[in-house]
Design goal:
By secondary structure, the protein is mostly helical. It is built from 9 helices and 6 strands, in the order H-H-H-E-E-E-E-E-E-H-H-H-H-H-H. The strands form 3 sheets. It has a two-stranded antiparallel sheet. Strand 3 and strand 4 form a beta hairpin. The radius of gyration is 33 Å and the shape is elongated.
Length: 344
Amino acid sequence: MKVRSGCSQFPTLLQILTYVMYILNVIITYIHTIILEEYIVHYIIFSILVSISCYFSIKTTISNPTDSYVIQQQKFRGETFDYEEHHLTQFCELCIAYVKETTKHCKQCNRCCEDFDHHCRWINNCVGGKNYKQFIGMILFTFLILLHSMIVNGRVINQYNKQELKTLTIYSKQQKSMFIIAVLFLVLEIVGSIFLLQLIVFHAYLYKKGITTYEFIIQRRTKQVQPSEFNIINNQDSKMDIIKNNKEQEDQCIMFRKEKEKQTSQIYTNSELIKKDESLCSIKKNSQSILQKRKLTQGESEDSQKEGVVNYFSQRIQSNVDFKLQNRQLNTIEMKTPEITQFQ
């Protein structure tokens, strides 16, 4: 099985931009630290922050958050795998493997991520249970690096205004260009620190609620779909009025129903038999799908696995066609039943 991470995949534009801006900010901060009186202390503090940030960034990017059960099933393809023993109720048709309930299939990475939180485009990798702590450490120490860089660049701008840069030989000829660079990076660092601070506060909120980013997005979508309480009350009142009117009409039609029960009994029995046949067919199809999934997860070779996948999806398409044909037959039978309004 090929290991997928942020470095093994094709780099995105945001990932390249992140690396470039991160390296430039570190270099500019090291250069500007020379003008400070306590530059040795700043060098030590900044070097520690950069080292820890790089460690968490590399760990988060090169980690493989794929579901452990998916790796196990793909590594030992052809051997028996008891998914009931591991309490696996979900089946991924793209990975052809049983997965945990908290595992989600990422479209960007094309793999099932264990305890899926979100897909981070800045590192071009999924964030899940295996690398979530490293991700939090990465954004936290990157935020501290930006704060330190803001302090250094702010002091460079302050010394330029006080005409103190002329005393330094390194800045005597290029003090204007270094001032412009300091202002530019200070603006970028302020924007980046605000973005990271919001991200840190957001994940602290998720930690307090005990949910992931994916679950937070799903909850927001379901709240937008649900109607307001006022609309529900109005709909209930309107439904009560409709029920009262329909009840009066139903009382008038009871006599007509009793007279025509004998004529329509045969048609109803036919429709009931078709419904029973459909339920039996659905049970049979469910058992067949379970057997097919077991064959797919226990294929001996890649060719047999590909052939099994083709047969699996072709049978699913054929079952959908059969189901639609049965629905058409049922609709034609129900159309023959006389409506009550015809006798009024």
